[in-house]
Amino acid sequence: MSPFVIIVLGALLMAGMLWLKALPPHRRGPAVIKLVILSLIAALVILTVTGRIHWIGALFAGVFLLYKKYGFLLKAIPFLGKLFKSHAKAKQPPSPNNQHMQRTEALKVLGLEEGCSDEEIILAHRKLMQKFHPDHGGNSYLAAQLNEARACLLKR
Questions:
Q1: What's the pLDDT score for residue 99?
Q2: N or C: which end of the chain has fewer CB within 10 A?
Q3: Which residues form the J domain (predicted)?
């Protein structure tokens, strides 16, 4: 590999590390995955341009295409099926309760007391949702509980 390519790759690696360091901790996991994928793509491009990707690259490309088309067959293998099921369970949001939230429980969730106004309910919901929204590092279960509490108290 030429020294120019090595310098460019080193500079890109340093830029990626500085970018990761600047991110908030709850966003570093997905960012690392993006950085690894971009690094693999860059490595494949370099190997292709320099003519060093041979039958191994073709093998990986073939396996990838077969997985895209016939990936459902892997679920038939018991061991891999268990892995897929555990991975799918982790991604599924919690199922909602069939029971409706009681007023006292809704007040506890939002941290309010009996006799509060609609504006106080909306303000408390907004404040807590900013902390616990899934897009801001919270989880979907807590956000659903907050929404259900607000709806219960406002009778929507």
A1: 53
A2: C
A3: 105-156
